[in-house]
Every structure is written in C-alpha cells, then in structure tokens.
Amino acid sequence: MNISEHITRFDQELKRRNFADTTRETYVSNVKIFFEKSTKDHPKNINEDDIRKFLSQFNQPNTQRSFHSAIKKFYEICLGQKEKFKYIPYARKEKRLPIVLSVSEIQAMFDACGNIKHRVILALLYSCGLRVSELLNLKLAHIDRSRMIINVIQAKGNKDRQVMLTPEIVPLLEKYWNEYRPKEYVLNGQFPEKDLQYSERSVGNVIKQLAAKAGINKRVYTHLMRHCSFTHMVEAGTDINLIQKIAGHSSVKTTNIYLHISHNHISKIKSPLNAISL
User: Fold this and answer.
1) Exactly one of 84, 117, 131, 227 is catalytic; which is it?
2) Beta strand pairing call for 161-164 and 149-152
3) Which of 9, 65, 223, 245 is catalytic?
4) Which residue in the list 258, 260, 268, 270 is annotated as catalytic?
5) Is there a smaller number of Cβ atoms within 10 Å at the N or the C end of the chain?
6) Global pTM value
7) CA distance 243 to 252
8) Is residue 258 annotated as part of the catalytic site, yes or no?
9) What's the CA angle centered on 270, arms 268 and 271, to 5 degrees?
C-alpha cells in the first residue's frame, strides 16, 4: 500500500476543512500507524473485522477512541465510506477524576518559585485555566489591560475566547517584561534569537520542579493547573456556566466534572457514621 499518498491526501483535506493543527497532527499520525500495520493493498479493501482487530489491541479506552476517530474521519472524508463504521461503536470513555491540589499547595508552589519567568508560567496557567498550548501561543498583543481580559486566539477547536486578566498578575507581568523584554510571544524560548516560543516540555519541567520544591507528593503535571483553577473557582462560588465560558467547553456537561471534585460539595455530605458513637 502506498501509505504516503493516502496520508498526504488526508492531511491536505484536514487543512482545507480548517481542523486545528493539534487535531490534524493526531489524526494523521494515528491513520499512518493504522496503515503501517495493515496487510491490505488499499484502504478500501480493509474491512470492519480488520478495523475491530486493530482497535482491540489498545487496552486504554481513550487511546482506542483516539484511533477510532482518526480512522473513521479518514474513511469519511477521503473515501466516502462513513458506513464502514456503522457497526463499530466507540469504546466507553474512562471516567477518572483528577486529583487536584489544594489552594495551600498552589500557594506553596508560588512560595517555592524564585524565577520570575517560572512564576509567570504558573500564574497564567492557574489564574484562568489556560491550556499549555494556549499559554505557549499567547502573544503580548493578546493581553488587553484596558478591558482587563486575555484574548485566547484559535484555541482548541479553532475557537477564540476571552478570559479574565487578574489584577494581581499585572505587576508580575510588568516586572517580567522589564527583565526579559519578550518580543512577540509572552514566553520567549531559551534562545529568543533562534526560537521565539517556549516549549511544552519546558513548561512541564517548570511545573514538576516547583511541585517537588514545594514538597507536594501528588502527581503534578501542566494540565492539572487547569483542573485546579476551575475546581477552586467552583469552591469560591463561581457560577458553573461562567466557568464553562472561561474554559472554552462546548457543553456545560464537560465543566460539571469540577462539581464532582470540589471538596466544598463532598465535605458537606453527612456520613451515616455521624449518628454512631465511636
């Protein structure tokens, strides 16, 4: 099978239909892996059983769903064979709740941070729940001090949205700008003259190092700051519909996860043990 021909066509069609870069890259990568493992001479000759067998090798339901979506989209837009997946249902989603940090643990991370650039990274991620890609693509021009908002441009799903520019972060950003003099992007790379943007790996390392310095034993990763932000907003009484808009969720059902992990709600439940004398 001439893999490159099909992959190129798929990639071009996704670009034409204005799929987000991250989605397009994932879809193309997944379909390429699928074809590389196939023994058939053409995608049209791959049947439902072949697809089911391929998908069944993934133990993680979410991984399987990712491949399922990519392959289904290929057959839909490149071969017009949407019906090929009519009897191949998606694996059920995993419903795992993130273990968030407390406000005091977030404070401990700030207290442990002596580098102003690292402090800006943590502050922007936590203050309004930015995704790491949104943080990396944030430009100076996107920060509107006159309206106290941050414009998040072409975020997930190629959708723009606005989040609040917290007053407390403004002096920090001013101090950071005076010291680092970033040009286009808020976060310059390590070598601004060669690399305009900071890397996702670097942001991840910053967050993990700050958690270690703060003595936090929980698993801490970049996206957890987003979960912490919205969970703490819920606990502070922010309306869930406002959090949905800030988060950029298409449905409030997605945002409702933060109601489930808010300790304000869990800790107020009366246990039947309350009526027992220990």
Assistant:
1) 131
2) antiparallel
3) 223
4) 258
5) C
6) 0.75
7) 9
8) yes
9) 130
Half-sphere exposure of 166 (CA within 13 A, CB side): 14
139 is catalytic: no
Q: Determine which one of 156, 161, 213, 245 is catalytic.
A: 156
Radius of gyration of the chain (CA): 22
Q: Is 73 a catalytic residue?
A: no
Residues 6+ apart with CB under 8 A from 18: 158
* 46-89 tens-digit pLDDT: 999 999 999 999 999 989 999 999 999 999 999 998 888 989 99
Length of the chain: 278
Those residues whose C-beta lies under 8 Å from the C-beta of residue 201, and which sit 6 or more positions away, are none
Single out the catalytic residue among 24, 226, 227, 232: 226
Give the model confidence (pLDDT) of 11-42 as tens digits: 999 999 988 888 899 999 999 999 999 988 88
Beta bridge mates, 163: 150
Q: Which two tokens stand for residue 126?
A: 């936590």
Q: Indicate whether 215 pLDDT > 70.
A: yes
Q: Is 42 a catalytic residue?
A: no
Helix (H, G, I), strand (E, B) or coil at 258: helix
**Is there a catalytic annotation at residue 156?**
yes
Residue 223 a catalytic site member: yes
Q: Which of 142, 161, 213, 249 is catalytic?
A: 249
